[in-house]
Amino acid sequence: MFDLLIKALKNRDDRTVAQEMGFMALRICILIVVISLCILLFYITMKGFRVVNFEFLTQAPRDGMVKGGIFPAILGTFLLSVGALIFALPTGVLTAVWLTEYAINQKFVRIVRIGINSLAGVPSIVFGLFGLMFFVKFMQFGVSLLSGALVLGILILPTIIGASEEALLTVPKAFKEASLALGATRWETMYKITLPNAISGIITGIILSVGRAAGETAPILMTAATFYTARLPNSLFSKVMALPYHIYALMTEGSKKGQTEIAYGTALVLLLLVLAINSVAIFIRIKARRARKW
Amino acid sequence: MSDDTIVNRITVKDFNAFYGEKHALKNVSIDIPANKIMAMIGPSGCGKSTFLRSINRMNDLIENFKTDGKMMIDGSDVYDRSIDVTQLRRKVGMVFQKPNPFPKTIFENIAYGLRVNRLFKDNKDLQEKIEKSLMEAGVWEEVKDDLDKSAFELSGGQQQRLCIARALVIKPEVILMDEPTASLDPISTAKIEELIQVLKKDYTIVIVTHNMQQAARVADKTAFFMLGELVEYDLTSKMFTKPGKKITEDYITGRFG
Fold it and tell me: Which pTM does this prediction carry?
């Protein structure tokens, strides 16, 4: 690794020294990335794997959280993510369609895009606060699955819009022109030609955003999540348990022995869940890339 | 050919086109006869493609694209408010510079126009129409056993003839061709040129070409555009032997462009 550099130093070959130093810097950066990821995965796994078993995944917590499992939190996270998707999927994809395919006034498009990008930059706790004021209080949805799902939906909108736009733009203009020239309307061209050819990219983006929604804590902190509920959610207005919030609560509330371990176990489950979701996205992307012919 | 039997399919009078501030077509007046081939030649950026795409309003989606003047097909103004642009494009088919089949099967590529325009009665009718148009485009023998294969598996020349079949199947009156052989090899080009000759029996063909020999070979009339203006428009035989203007002669003989 160093031999080239040493040789160059010996030969007083400045240009090669500069190059080798540069490459060295790149290698160090890569190492930092890979090592931090490994440490994180290793640490969480070591700390958490002992509590993760079938019972942990399928039972409700008992005895003040230290016994039983985290099933309600898994279910809650699942419902919140699905709810967020039900709201954000059509809204986001159709917004992207409008931005890329319909809008002719590019100035207005730019303004909308700036808005979307700003939305992406809003800290998630601010989304939480907004959700509390708007959905929980003003709309009177209360602290509920509905409020949380809507806040998460808004949170992932920019991701979905961005991914969908990118996917729509990869569809060659020639396809759209061919369709229009055959007397298809712009709408027909959209759903018969453009969307089918962009769909795998859109799905990939959506799945990645679900992973994001599943892992967020701050937005649901004040809008949907509860530390413990005896019943599983039975309506849109139920409070729900959720994995990230469960971890937060276990580490900040109560002081029973074993809480930390369960928190790590929960973290491990959440991590695996998000990784699983992301690998589905990667799988779809690879398949789509192979199928693509243009 | 005697001029008095000729019916004009497209009549253009003082037609102007603008991309924002850019004046892309300047007072173009031209009559395109029915069942003839009209070729447009001229250096890049001369407005010939803009003119072609103005006929079926493919430029509509470009921001700040504006036109004025008259662009009449069979007596009705293409840019009139009452014109349904999808109906217009049904009547005026288009073949593009690069073959652009859909990422679908050969069959579905042709079926697309019939489906969106609801131009078939039943499955049998659909299949017959597809077969007929592929024959018309001279590509049937090559693809008849592979109708369920992806159109991308065909060669470039076959793809272009497929695209021509796709345009023919909805029975347009006019076919616009934007440098249809620009991306093809000489043999495929020859096949397409032959095909164009056959097609003029039933269609009015307007073709943009960069290739002067092509215009000379296929076109009945040729229009020479430069800097957005129609410089000269005449029978091809006359344009290529006794052009009326010096600049046309210079372009045709390759002195510039």
Answer: 0.82
